[in-house]
Amino acid sequence: MSDPRHSRPEPKELMEFLPDESLLREELVRAMRRIARIPRTEAETREYLRQRKLPEISVESIIDTLKQEGFLDDARFAKGYVRFRLGQGYGPARIRRELRDKGVTGSAADFAIAAAREDRDELEILRNVLAKRVRVKGEPREPRELKNLGTFLERRGFDYNLVREELEVYFDRIKNGGGKS
């Protein structure tokens, strides 16, 4: 027999402990609308509800209901977020950090990134970002500019070795005279 003090009540049972059931429903609807406008993670939603000064039991009840109703799903959020950020020209390392900052577990982030890599190649994305940067800023003509370009790509979340390989062409041009070939 389990000790009722240590078992977690069901969301419907939680409503009995609240001073005003309508407050819980109102906060639940508010959270649903917020998530419907912009997808959120469970951690972001939990933080939002805590900032609204709700009792912890209410926060957990709302989170449980949102998950049961399909409004909160960190794995689904991570998949969509990865596709979106890859499309903006960001690399896996940066996206993984951003997901971690949003409260998505490492395994969910890794799974979403791996799934997205099946659709889009990191090297292809890196080359597109590099081509756009060179088109806008011009080719690097001195080592400092090349270093800045490499730093930009690494901040974007691309693997150091990939960046280095792609910048070899520019390094050779600078080493052999500084101009376009």
List keywords for this structure.
181 residues, 72% helix, Arc Repressor Mutant, subunit A, disordered N terminus, mainly alpha
Could you give the order of the helices and strands? HHHHHHHHHH
The percentage of residues in β strands lies in under 5%
Q: Main β-sheet: number of strands, strand sense, barrel status?
A: none
Helicity, as a percent range: over 70%
Q: Name the poorly predicted regions.
A: 1-9
- Count of beta strands: 0
Distance between the termini: 80 Å
Number of helices: 10
The helix/strand class is mainly alpha
Number of domains: 3
- Taking all Cα atoms into account, the compactness measure Rg is 24 Å
Net shape = elongated
Look at the structure and give the mean pLDDT: 86
Question: Would you give an account of this structure?
Answer:
By secondary structure, this protein is an all-alpha fold. It is built from ten helices and no strands. The longest helix is centred in the N-terminal third of the chain and has 17 residues, at 21-37.
Topology:
Elements: H1 11-17, H2 21-37, H3 42-51, H4 56-68, H5 74-87, H6 92-101, H7 106-119, H8 122-137, H9 143-155, H10 160-175
Helix pairs in contact: 1-4, 2-4, 3-4, 5-6, 5-7, 6-7, 9-10
Briefly say what this structure is.
This protein is an all-alpha fold and 181 residues long. The chain is built from ten helices and no strands. It has helices at 11-17, 21-37, 42-51, 56-68, 74-87, 92-101, 106-119, 122-137, 143-155, 160-175.
